[in-house]
Amino acid sequence: MNKVLGGFGRGVGRGIIRMGIRFVLMVNKQGQTRLAQYYEYLTLDERRALEGEIVRKCLARNEQQCSFVEHRNYKIVYRRYASLFFLVGVDNDENELAILEFIHLLVETMDRHFGNVCELDIMFHLEKAHFMLEEMVMNGCIVETSKSNILTPIQLMDKTS
Amino acid sequence: MNPFSSGTRLRDMIRAIRACKTAAEERAVVRKECAAIRAAINENDQDYRHRNLAKLMFIHMLGYPTHFGQMECLKLIASPGFPEKRIGYLGLMLLLDERQEVLMLVTNSLKQDLNHTNQYIVGLALCALGNICSAEMARDLAPEVERLLQFRDPNIRKKAALCSIRIIKKVPDLAENFINPATALLREKHHGVLITGVQLCTDLCKISTEALEHIRKKCTDGLVRTLKDLANSPYSPEYDIAGITDPFLHIRLLKLLRVLGEGDADASDTMNDILAQVATKTESNKVAGNAILYECVQTIMSIEDNGGLRVLAINILGRFLSNRDNNIRYVALNMLMKAVSADAQAVQRHRATILECVKDSDASIRKRALELVYVLVNETNVKPLAKELIDYLEVSDLDFRGDLTAKICSIVAKFSPEKIWYIDQMLKVLTEAGNFVKDEVWYALIVVISNASELHGYTVRALYRAFQVSAEQESLVRVTVWCIGEYGDMLVNNVGMLDIEDPITVTESDAVDVVEIAIKRHASDLTTKAMALVALLKLSSRFPSCSERIREIIVQFKGSFVLELQQRAIEFNSIIAKHQNIRSTLVERMPVLDEATFIGRRAGSLPGAASTPTIPSVSLPNGVAKPVAPLVDLLDLNSDDAPAPSSSGGGDLLQDLLGVDLPPASQQSGAGQASKTGNDVLLDLLSIGSPSAPSSSSAVDILSSNSSNKVPVSPLDDLSSLSLSTGTTSNAAPMMDLLDGLAPSPPTENNGPVYPSITAFESSSLRLTFNFSKQPGNPQTTVIEATFINLSSNTYTDFVFQAAVPKFLQLHLDPASSNTLPTAGNGSITQNLKITNSQHGKKSLVMRIRIAYKINGKDTLEEGQVNNFPRDL
What protein family is recorded (chain A) (predicted)? Predict the structure, then answer.
């Protein structure tokens, strides 16, 4: 009966929480995930399925088409930088244009740190990319929009090491 | 040693994974790495713990399971060094989630770190808490977070603000503690604190009306001033984006103002000036500026009416709509959708542009535009709009056709000014996109056709023509086959010619050709073929000259592997061969289908349909509506317990005519429900008590000759008289049996699985009973209606029911009907549970329950285990 106790609370309704940003994904041209941060819980299988579906949808679109794709009950705002796609899943009432601008801010921040950021920088410094994103987004909301404020703690880390 | 600079082995692993050419190679590398990491974990290796975790994060990102590393995160978090803690917290956020028990163990570490002297460590803990905090943790740690909202460093305050959002969403009761500290944040200068503070206030307003009132009264002026300062601020390099200072903060402020202004004229008035300024002064040639304008328009549309501002906003949207940038057009369409409710007239002005957007090459824009057109349609513009859309249907993308077809059908059905127009448009849609049309749509079409008696001839001829060009559209074929079966004679004799029609000559054998093509086409599905068989039977009586040919076609299906077709073929064949005398009365034209009942049922007003939404509420007598089995016969009456067909031809025929078709696999569950529906349909078909039933052609009258003078009181009476009047007494008994199954309280053995209710829990103060039902076609899932009855003389408040089940079960709880349980006799609480049993048939259900409530403010907790579930659930 251990399992029964272990499962306690599973059935307790988890309210649908509107949270703005649901996830941030970075995916390369081949569709391989290079960074993923989710702000709502999905199981591993759900994540794989979701990433597969939206990457297929977004990568099939051309430059002229708009940067928003509706998927299930939310939207993907995406932007392409060289070989890397930045995909942000947001609730329907989020300001799509602002998210587009936010992606650019994220890329500029990474640029400032890595110097012309590329896919490999993110792959080999995954934890740093995560730290940067963490300084910018928390629980699906934007925390900070100043590049130097975002990077200060990270640079501090580099210095002390 | 620093975990980030000593990542050589991490690098090696990433290189190795990148070098993999196939997925299998990658899996092998990952498996080897995971094995090494597990070994390291078992040896409690301290030095490489952080590196192992970094590797696990990478492996996790690739989509491999990494649960075995979870405890490592906790160990790292508990270690004293900042670098270890940092990667530990990152791992915690990525690898764990709020639902895992491991999380309980981290609460203590979090509490210590929130009180740490190093502010960076406090920041880490806040960030982690903000991302993964559960309700329990929220209660435990809320005081710390509240305190940190006043911390000296703004970087901590901003994180504490977002953490507070998580806490109040998890535990809304805590909201009031945060109102004062949150409003204090609105007076800050630091952008990070401001943006998070504004966000916190927005969420507080959504959760608590008290907070909304407070913030509206105390902070609106301040927020307007902040926005004004921001909009007029000089260039600040740190926050500048395309010449605008911090557009993100602009947007957050506008969002909060929207919440405050909605439904409050005074607050709306306060913000008018600044909104006008933002709407007119913001640069609109860059994304950032447009993002602000977009948000501003949304706020103007939501707050209390100010005519001038609305005009300004609609003009901005007009400008957006004609922008060349697709992103801007997309948001314009999105926004116009919301503007429709505020000012439909202004949106109508852009109708032509919007209609163009429906034809855009970009799927996202098309979808938005279509939704918008859909809400813009009304009685006056339906004709031109429907024409545009239907014309576009011909050239639209295949993956867009489904949506487009559904919308067109809905528009046409909702606003059609006259029946002939409706039928014309529907035929066009069926011709172009018949394969995309949903079942309800063509059922509805048939109901309308059946009711438009003066258009029968016109319709069947139009369908015949359409069939000649679009025989591959399944639902067109079905409607055509049905109409030819019913009105085939009108097709041949040009009955009811309208002035607008071109005359055509169709011979009897041409009409049979159509049905023959339909039945012999390989792509036709069971429904179509079965409908075609019925049509053939009807035609055999209408066209005596083709009777022999029809019999030959029917005979070919006597060998069909599909039981349903085989049975029909055999029965129809014997009708044609042996029962000439009654054939013509048997295959009379269908009585007019009752439109009102159909529409009512479609709206879900049927009591049965309301409680079990999975059973389609539409089922037409002609047809083919059944949740599980693909087929319903003439009368759509089905029950899962069949009396064996007897050898007597008359009895067979009667059963078949009544459409008592009993596919073996259908409806094992939910039979009670289904038979209710069946009963209803029967009523409907016989149109008992319905004034619209024409007395000459109704099946009631044909068969109940002995009671033709009075309106039958119940369908049972009627049907029994019907079985008698055909003179096949040998079959009366099974017939009655069958009808018994339709009675309001069916005997259980006729209805397969109907489970007895159980008393799941009973104490001196409370009784809990479970009622069970199954959803058809889904034997694994049981729907339980739990009813709580208060056995004491006190009212229970804050009543919460929780349940837990073992791993092989999945439990879903719907919200309870109330959280207050009055004393016995004054009401009860009901709550629906849905359980899916992955070991259905092997293991029985079992559940542990916990019921918490307050008696006069005193907490009471009752727990128990439910073991007495009926077997086989």
Answer: Belongs to the adaptor complexes small subunit family.
CA distance B147 to B163: 12
Q: How confident is the model over A59-81, as pLDDT tens digits?
A: 888 888 899 999 888 899 999 99
Measure in Å the smallest separation between the Cα of B168 and chain A Cα atoms. 11
The pLDDT score that the predictor gives to residue B27 is: 92
Token representation of residue B88: 């530990």
CB proximity under 8 Å: B 532-591 to A:
none
Q: Which of residues 76-95 of A touch B (CB under 8 A)?
A: 95
| 3-state class (DSSP) for residue B524 | coil
Q: How far is CA A81 from CA A22, A86, B98, B340, B688, in A?
A: 21, 8, 33, 36, 69
Which of A134, A155, A159 is the best substitution to test chain B (most B C-beta atoms within 10 A)? A134
Interface residue of A126, A131, A137, A159 to substitute, partner B, most B CBs within 10 Å: A126
Structure ipTM:
0.88
DSSP bridge pairs for B863: B850
Degrees, nearest 5: CA angle A58-B247-B149: 105
Residue (of B792, B793, B809) closest to B862 by Cα position? B792
Contact across the interface for B290 and A8, Cβ inside 8 Å = no
B98 and A131: CB-CB below 8 Å? no
Contacts of B101 in chain A (CB under 8 A): 6
pLDDT less than 70: residues of chain B: 1-8, 97-100, 600-753
pLDDT of the residue at B657: 40
pLDDT tens, B298-331? 999 999 877 788 888 988 999 999 898 999 999 9
- Joined tokens for residue B294: 């977009």
If you count DSSP H runs as helices and E runs as strands, how many of each does chain B have, helices first?
38, 10
Cα(B52)–Cα(B41) distance, integer angstroms: 9
Q: Of B446, B568, B468, B562, give the one whose Cα is nearest residue B518.
A: B468
Whether pLDDT at A37 is above 90: yes
pLDDT per residue over A109-152, tens digit each? 999 999 988 999 999 899 899 999 999 999 999 999 999 999 99
